[in-house]
Write a structure and sequence with these properties.
It is an enzyme of class 4 (lyase). By secondary structure, this protein is α/β, with parallel strands linked by helices. Helices cover 44% and strands 16% of the residues.
């Protein structure tokens, strides 16, 4: 899809409408789901504790329910991440976004990183898995290594960022990820995608999904203010 063919509905189908703040209230989650229905976003993306509520709110809609796992640090045991993924899916999640173990990746312990991702991938079964790299904390070599591990395992997407670290998605990182995984695997840009211009730049760089809490601004072509 090129930028010249992008309509409001085209943008909407790329957006994971996101609310991951630890102090998010029930009313805010309800508003998130209502907006996702209204604007036709691909999904809502929430912490796993909000999955049961969102599953009820999104019944009989086309909006997918996505849950984050091991969020936002990625530093817990692989079995804990796998358990969280299974529980979220049992409660209604239909996509999972996990944070890989950043410390293990920086150690160069690629076997441990692969085991961490594979356990969650196996727990997901047929539910698509996206793996968050937290690119702001990684070298070019680490980003490339993580993408290759994800590609070898067969996850659905690699994703730039949690939105809770020192930086979010950049055009350069999305380009690197797309070049590494090739044309067929999903690439999700998240963290700081606040407006139409940023969305256009990420799509042009190779993103096929956008994680943002500024989805309404992107669809309307106005300015967003949220950090995610």
């Amino acid at each position: 899809m090129t930028m010249t063919t992008m309509t409001a509905s085209s943008y909407a189908t790329l957006i994971d409408h996101t609310l991951l703040a630890p102090d998010a209230t029930r009313a805010q989650i309800e508003s998130l789901c209502e907006d996702a229905r209204k604007f036709g976003f691909h999904s809502v993306c929430v912490n796993s504790g909000r999955v049961p509520l969102c599953a009820r709110l999104l019944q009989n809609s086309s909006v997918v329910l996505c849950a984050v796992v091991g969020f936002p640090l990625g530093a817990m045991l692989p079995d804990a991440k796998a358990f969280e993924a299974r529980q979220a899916i049992a409660q209604g999640a239909r996509e999972i976004d996990m944070v890989l173990n950043i410390g293990w990746l920086k150690d160069g312990d690629l076997g441990a990183v692969e085991d961490d991702i594979r356990k969650v991938f196996e727990a997901c079964g047929n539910v698509p898995l996206k793996v968050i790299l937290e690119t702001a904390l990684l070298s070019q070599e680490e980003k490339t290594a993580a993408c290759r591990i994800c590609q070898n395992i067969g996850v659905a997407f690699v994703k730039t960022s949690t939105g809770f670290s020192k930086g979010g998605a950049t055009v350069a990182d999305v380009q690197l990820m797309r070049e590494t995984v090739g044309p067929d695997m999903g690439v999700k840009a998240s963290g700081g995608v606040r407006d139409r211009a940023a969305a256009d730049a990420m799509v042009a760089a190779g993103a096929t999904r956008l994680g943002t809490s500024s989805g309404i601004a992107i669809v309307k072509g106005t300015a967003g203010t949220s950090s995610y």
